[in-house]
Amino acid sequence: MRLYEYEAKKLFSRDGIPVPQAEIVKSPEDARNFAKKSGKPVVLKAQVLSGGRGKAGGIKFALNPEEAKEKAAELFSLKIKGFPVEMILLEEKVDVEKELYVGVTIDRLNYKLVIIVCTEGGMEIEEVARKSPEKVKKINLDIDEKLYQFQAQSLVKWLGVKGEQIRNVGNIISSLFKVFKSYDAKLVEINPLILTRKGEYIACDARMSVDDDALFRHKELSEMGIEKRHEEGEMTQREKKARGWEIPYVDLDGDIGMFPGGAGFGIMGNDFIHYFGGKPANFMDSGGGPTPERLAQMLILLDENPQVKAIFGARFGGISRCDDFAKGVVMFLKEHGLSKPMVLRMTGNMWQEGVRIFQQAEKENPEIFRNIEIHGIETPIEEIAKRAVELAKKM
Amino acid sequence: MRLYEYEAKKLFSRDGIPVPQAEIVKSPEDARNFAKKSGKPVVLKAQVLSGGRGKAGGIKFALNPEEAKEKAAELFSLKIKGFPVEMILLEEKVDVEKELYVGVTIDRLNYKLVIIVCTEGGMEIEEVARKSPEKVKKINLDIDEKLYQFQAQSLVKWLGVKGEQIRNVGNIISSLFKVFKSYDAKLVEINPLILTRKGEYIACDARMSVDDDALFRHKELSEMGIEKRHEEGEMTQREKKARGWEIPYVDLDGDIGMFPGGAGFGIMGNDFIHYFGGKPANFMDSGGGPTPERLAQMLILLDENPQVKAIFGARFGGISRCDDFAKGVVMFLKEHGLSKPMVLRMTGNMWQEGVRIFQQAEKENPEIFRNIEIHGIETPIEEIAKRAVELAKKM
Amino acid sequence: MAILVDNNSKVIVQGITGGAGRFHTERMLQYGTKIVAGTSPGKGGEKVFDVPVYDTVEECVKNHQADTSIIFLPARFVMEACVEAIYAGIKFVVVIPEHIPIFDMMQIRKEALKHNALVIGGNTAGIITPGEVNLGIMPDIAFSPGRVGTVSRSGSLTYYVADTLTRTGYGETTCVGLGGDPVLGTTFDEILWLFEKDEKTKAVVLVGEIGGVYEEKAKDTISKMKKPVIAMVGGLYAPQGKRMGHAGAIVEGEMGTAQSKLKALEQGGAHIAKTFLDIPEILKKLGI
Amino acid sequence: MAILVDNNSKVIVQGITGGAGRFHTERMLQYGTKIVAGTSPGKGGEKVFDVPVYDTVEECVKNHQADTSIIFLPARFVMEACVEAIYAGIKFVVVIPEHIPIFDMMQIRKEALKHNALVIGGNTAGIITPGEVNLGIMPDIAFSPGRVGTVSRSGSLTYYVADTLTRTGYGETTCVGLGGDPVLGTTFDEILWLFEKDEKTKAVVLVGEIGGVYEEKAKDTISKMKKPVIAMVGGLYAPQGKRMGHAGAIVEGEMGTAQSKLKALEQGGAHIAKTFLDIPEILKKLGI
Fold first, then answer.
1. B341-349: average pLDDT
2. What is the pTM of this model?
3. Does B285 share its domain with B318?
4. Nearest Cα to A274, choosing from C215, C141, C238?
5. Which of A295, B40, C85, C136 has the most CB atoms lying inside 10 A of its own CB?
6. Is there a single domain that holds both residue A146 and residue A276?
7. Boundaries of domain holding A328
8. Chain B: partners with 3+ C-beta pairs within 8 Å
9. Are residues B218 and B248 located together in one domain of the fold?
């Protein structure tokens, strides 16, 4: 889960990392006031969670208060990856002598924490690392290992920092590592770490992602208003509706509605539809052990989607039980009916009960099962996927 | 360096350890007010740093406000190991069902942190441990090792705590360990940890010592007013004078003034005097590399002491240089003269310069060297000690 | 023969008194899994389906020589429970819950390596040695004893693979779910190597999916194995996922895409299956 | 022959540009100690008595194959400096400053063990192999090459012992100061064992003093040694010192008194000297 730049900077600054004089503003007028108070050229940075802010025009400069107001107004009318700009971080402009990069992240492959520095900051660091690996240096640490100051300082010396500043920049790295550890971060980055013309080092941009799953032990973040949040761009109406129901859902541009069980199969099922010549209309995940209500909601999303011509359903009952699955489908069919053909495969835990629920419901309301084909373990899932493609093509 | 009980409890409580309702009072009137406000029987505990408070009558109980005032007045007129009682910790009396012991300290032998629990609290735990080792259980951890909750809980279960309270008391141990680590402690103890009649656990006494040498990194302690402090009992006038000069000095009951170089030799020299039939009048340490001024002060302490009949001096110049030593002695002799015989041995770093300084001074003021015998490396230190005993006996 | 669990495994359930713990304990017992004890701090002395409950894992090991554990607890308690099991001498732990904090998983991994234990999960459907022991939440119906080992990050894909192997008569030796969380207790390598050494296993099916780096890491192990590995990777048609910032890209490079995974697995010498039905075809061609 | 340091030791001084560092560098150089480099972060490139200064220990090791370090820095910087030296590959570190925080010393001890290095101090006068290398603040005059090794917690007692051995013609192989701080990088055991294995050392003098637990710990080592150990303990007539509370008493028991130390050393088989002059007497009786 990503933090806003200004939030990351607040955390960095608390642990002693120097950041520019700054203020969060929510109106062009406030931007003007900050610039006036500061009396210096300012930078205006749209606060959004998505990447590519620079390319999207989300960063502007202003030499005087009036210009600051103007530029702020421009930013507030901007949308970046679908998100309207609602906050701008105003900072005093820093005179740049040199730009470095410092970051900490997790190396999942080797189960290490990694501290990374690069002699070139302010740019796409992964490009630099790919083209000129000699410009990048790393230290790996175990999860419960200390970062000694001398280790941080040796990175700093390697970066070419001289004299008294070795200790200061070493402290910046130590602090950054401390922030990383204190908040269960997945990533903290200062890019660029600026050497000013005055010879000081200052964190000009800050990036930080924390582990959503560890938020429960960071009350201090929720006290700062940092709660679980969404990073995706502008959502479709349907995606918003799905989010309201807490269903992971993404619209795609095909015509087969995917009603899968299990995240793994959700991904693989999408490939299968492609292999057999079809195109899915969506991604969806039921989550572990969905209730009948949630399953019914999932079907509502597909049924209401005019793009969807046929529905491909699969349930292999594990932690999700087939009886609940059948109940959810029947609940939906009884309340809404289904306007599109659907082919389903259901097996796994409690499959007998699932079959019984379907049979009972069909006996009571045969008309609602008109468009529906239900298979069991005897039919390979590939056949079901093929059939879904066939059904969609027929429509 | 030991903390007052109330300070330790403040730190314990901050990290979530339950402590009794309490207040520090500095007058009998305040004691009455607390008891009135509380409306319950109270305990009055003299806040002193020395041990043996209970035996010295430093803990009293009161059933009502008037009694609290009375008992407080008694305590305020008390001296414990020479220290007047200046603060009393007033606490609501706790109904005791059972008393346990929990502590954390350092095992220097094995370079481990040790968490200790004992099924019998409230008494001299080392006695229990000696007589009934089966009542004590320990966990050893490396300096940078985690204490897992399950480890704390396994100690708690071993103590015989049941049900829901296992987690609570486990948390008390975890918190105590956290306090230990957070403040560079040498010791933290809850003795007793009380199980109340209501079934709750509460830290009724708290003991904590921190590492003086690590105080520099605990601003939070000095913000609480916890600075380097003295734990010794009432000092003699001379000891107070020595403290004013920051000279480690203790009066003993013999008649040979000890003017040693080096802490190690200070201890061994004391034994030597005993071996040869004498008795030292003091312990003293010059500290590493004393200045001539300090050496002169050391001699003032001995010269002014009427008990001292002769002075035994030794300097093996290491980090302390012989030239500085000679300068200090000469400075003293010139300004004060010496009323007692003194035998000295001086060798080690810069001994030639030392000898030269003495020779020069003797040439200028032969009379001040009348009572003084100065030896070099050719005379064993044992001979010097014997001579000092001899000189004292002659007086 | 099987890997990691068989009918000699003495299993405990950590969190046996909770809803999921209770439900799956019954299911696993019905399958024949030897559940010798369960834990629930503060509830020692109770019984769940005749299985004795203790406060600590230590007691389970002392009284029942338990060697294997399965955890059904809220994510925030998993690290403690898992390390408790490892410290008590348990050599194999199955972590069913999802959303374990990454730092916790790294701590678990470290303790497991240090104490020579193996942890699978978090967010795994578990492990099954068909006909002997079902340790987790996998549906019995998909599995039958046989001669192919499977390892996958996804529960549902494990079921579909086993379903296919069962339907086509190959059956499975052991099916291992590594788990779907971003940082896992065990990676493909370690499981592949156990299958390599298992007599009864004739071939291994590895199912990967987009995201993470563990499939790429398996390349070297596969190239050292004598037994054939059949690999399948989901997500070729999935939109590109998110990356962990610049630093993540430096550390993980191009890893994480289905293409990168397929390429690595193929370079390691794995036979690539596109659909489940390809698996028996390939096995047949290999003469298994 | 000698232990730990000889005229092949390539020494660096950490904190060489400080007052004490500079003063003792000159002294040590005069004695013949091979000081190949010094460190002082931010002062790399300077020189002190012709000794090149670097920012990091790593550079000293790379450019001068340094293998030994002596630290003259304020106590609060010692842990970092010491671990830096150990990580850079230095195998022997002498910590002169006193008042090192206990937790820091424990961290140092842990890293030293892990990296197979040895640290003496804090609050040591250093180590000297007479005629070859003087690493610390010990006065040259007390020492002469010879055949007895000495180990002590106190600087001044080291001088008096050496003074006696020198005056009586025995001389010393190596004299080791363990240091006076409450928690030390190295204990008697390790040094005794090195003397046991050193050809030239014919006997060892161990000087202990009241407080701490390291003398008691030496008992087992002494009992396993073939070479005679002569032990002296200061503090028989000192008033009882303070103990570290109840917990300290549980952990350390009765250890720490001069009596307890003398008893343990005698039980281990050491010959007890009361005064320095007893030492040559005992050596003579032993035929050394």
1. 93
2. 0.90
3. yes
4. C238
5. C85
6. no
7. 237-394
8. A, C, D
9. no
Do A254 and A380 share a domain, yes or no? yes
Helix (H, G, I), strand (E, B) or coil at A279: coil
Q: pLDDT value at position C162?
A: 96
User: What domain count does chain A have?
Assistant: 3
Tens digits of residue pLDDT in D170-181: 999 999 999 988
For B154, the closest of C42, C58, C107 (CB atoms) is C58
Tell me the domains of chain D and their CATH numbers: 11-121 (3.40.50.720), 139-285 (3.40.50.261)
The Cα A304–Cα A236 span in angstroms is 13
> What count of CB pairs under 8 Å joins B to C?
29
Query: Could you tell me if A66 and A134 lie in one domain?
Result: no
C281's tokens? 């075809």
CB atoms within 10 A of CB A225: 9
Hey, is the C-beta of A146 within 8 angstroms of any chain B C-beta? Answer: yes
Is the CB of A348 less than 8 angstroms away from the CB of C155? no
Domain CATH for A302: 3.40.50.261
Contact A174, A15 (CB under 8 A): no
Would you say residue B142 lies in a domain?
A: yes
Mean pLDDT of C74-103: 97
Same domain, B49 and B105: no
Asked if the structure places residue B11 within a domain, the reply is no
Q: Are residues A142 and A165 in the same domain?
A: yes
B109 Cα distance to chain centroid: 21
Q: DSSP 3-state assignment of D47? A: strand
CATH number at residue B30: 3.30.1490.20
Cross-chain residue pair D84–A148, CB shorter than 8 Å: yes
- Whether residues A132 and A269 share a domain: the answer is no
Of residues B25 and A53, more confidently modeled:
B25
Q: How far is D183 from chain A (nearest CA, A)?
A: 21
CA distance B185 to B200: 27
What is the model's pLDDT at position B320?
78
Residue B229 lies inside a defined structural domain of this protein: no
**Residues of chain D with C-beta less than 8 angstroms from the C-beta of A167:** 41-42
Per the omega criterion (within 30 degrees of 0), is the bond before D145 cis? no
Which among B240, B270, B268, B265 has a CA at the least distance from the CA of B252?
B270
Residue A56 pLDDT grade (very low, low, confident, very high; cuts 50, 70, 90): confident
User: Buried (b) or exposed (e) across D48-61, using 16+ Cβ within 10 A?
Assistant: beebbbbbbbbbbb
Residue C83 at interface with chain B, using a CB cutoff of 8 Å = yes
pLDDT band at residue C182, thresholds of 50, 70 and 90? confident
Tens digit of each residue's pLDDT (9 = 90 or more) over C2-43:
899 999 999 999 999 999 999 999 999 999 999 999 999 888
**Residue A6 counted as domain residue:** no
Instruction: Find the CB nearest C274 among A260, A275, A349.
Output: A275
Where among B223, B250, B282 does a domain terminate?
Answer: B223
In this prediction, the residues of chain D whose per-residue pLDDT falls under 50 are 242-245
User: Cβ of B109 and D213 within 8 Å?
Assistant: yes
ipTM over 0.85: yes
pLDDT band, very low/low/confident/very high, at B172 (cuts 50, 70, 90): very high
Among the candidates A200, A223, A246, a domain finishes at: A223
Chain B residues with CB inside 8 Å of D183's CB?
Answer: 106, 108, 111
